[in-house]
Design brief:
- This protein is of the alpha/beta class and 361 residues long.
- The chain has helices at residues 12-24, 39-49, 58-64, 79-88, 103-116, 130-138, 175-193, 198-225, 321-335, 343-359, and strands spanning 3-8, 29-35, 53-55, 69-72, 92-96, 120-123, 146-155, 233-240, 245-251, 257-264, 272-279, 282-288, 298-306, 309-317.
- The strands form two sheets. The chain has an eight-stranded mixed sheet, with helices on one face. A six-stranded parallel sheet has the order 3-2-1-4-5-6, with helices on both faces.
- α7 crosses α8 (198-225).
- The longest helix has 28 residues, at 198-225.
- It is globular.
- The model has no long low-confidence stretch (mean pLDDT 96).
Length: 361
């Protein structure tokens, strides 16, 4: 079954990942409509992908109808209203992370999903990485011997990975819309953590919810696989450099600690992202490439002692998680496959990250 999809928001992740993969999965999806406030961008992408239904606002797209699902890539502060409107219009929803900013909106999305009986899948794409799947399959039976978990990301963002002009950009978005969108995000951040100041918005919405969330989502999946009660106890949090660096810590039931850090380093061209689970008798490590690099493998390494040697198993996984999550979205809608990254998981991530942020004050 081929699904007619509308894309809402055509920024970096939409252009770099979702549009190319939706287009390549032509046996599963037709990109039938695009909602994007920049005329320049939507006309460029219409020409590039043959999209016929062009709209300046998502409401016009929903009103026109004729869709089976939407892929939501609009700014984070708009996610809740867009997801709820799409569900009310009878559509299935794929929403980029973060699903929303406040726990109240997360609860509203879960309730609307239940009421409409539609699929809501959150775009935490690392959960669809074959290397993550290999690690989940190779873990011990419990967290009893888990000693420490480390997450460290130094993020060069996107500049090193794209040629000039590769991402269509426009300076024709109305200023009043830009300002209204920023106010909307700031108001939601204030509801969540008590302040809507610029640095707070950057730290909480962009860094904690927009970046560190990816790794926490993987950590939560692994802890759940090990039978660890969730949420774990938040024992620390911090942010600095105007919100461009963040940290959070958890304490597990057996006393083991989880330390997580995401650091934005725009003046470097080096991206590194590592998740490591240290057990008493073995180490499990994931090393992720930049999400903007295609066909660059995620490396999963499991090592343990064998007599007087360290024996390691290494999996280099090339299949692209951005493509695999869209294939999964199709399976959820067409075949009734249970969603791997549902709103409940997103709510858990947002709850823990909120506590981490508040622990810094």
């Amino acid at each position: 079954m081929k699904l007619k999809v509308g894309l809402i928001g055509a920024g970096l992740v939409a252009q770099a990942e979702h549009l190319p993969y939706l287009s390549s999965l032509r046996d599963r999806f037709t990109i039938a409509a695009l909602a994007e406030p920049s005329v320049t961008v939507r006309e460029a992408l219409s020409a590039r992908y043959g999209i016929k239904g062009l709209h300046g606002d998502y409401r016009a797209m929903l009103d026109e109808g004729g869709l089976d699902a939407v892929v939501v890539c609009s700014p984070a502060g708009t996610h809740a209203e867009v997801v709820l409107a799409a569900l009310d219009a009878g559509l299935h929803v794929f929403v980029e992370k973060p699903m929303c900013i406040t726990l109240a909106d997360a609860d509203a999305i879960i309730a609307a999903r239940d009421r409409t009986a539609k699929v809501v899948q959150v775009g935490t794409m690392k959960r669809y990485d074959p290397a993550v799947e290999a690690m989940l399959a190779s873990l011990p039976d419990s967290a009893a011997d888990l000693r420490y978990v480390s997450v460290v990301v130094n993020d060069a963002e996107f500049e090193p990975f794209f040629e000039p002009g590769e991402i269509a950009r426009g300076n024709d978005v109305p200023q009043e819309l830009i300002e209204a969108t920023r106010r909307q995000e700031a108001e939601q951040v204030e509801q969540a953590v008590g302040s809507g100041d610029e640095a707070v918005v950057r730290a909480f919405s962009e860094s904690f919810l927009g970046s560190l969330l990816h790794d926490l989502n993987v950590v939560h999946a692994i802890l759940d696989r090990l039978g660890e009660p969730l949420p774990a106890q938040v024992v620390g949090g911090d942010w600095w450099n105007e919100g461009r660096a963040v940290y959070g810590a958890l304490r597990l039931q057996n006393g083991a600690r989880v330390d997580t850090a995401w650091i934005q380093l725009l003046d470097t061209f080096e991206y590194r992202e590592t998740i490591q689970f240290m057990f008493a008798e073995e180490l499990h490590t994931l090393e992720f490439p930049s999400p903007w690099l295609k066909q660059n493998p995620t490396i999963y390494r499991r090592s343990h002692r064998s007599d007087r040697a360290a024996e390691a198993r290494v999996v280099s996984a090339y299949d692209e998680s951005f493509s695999r999550e869209l294939r999964h979205f199709h399976e959820c809608i067409v075949d009734g496959t249970p969603c791997r990254t549902p709103p409940e998981g997103a709510r858990l991530d947002i709850d823990v990250l909120t506590q981490m942020f508040l622990a810094a004050h």
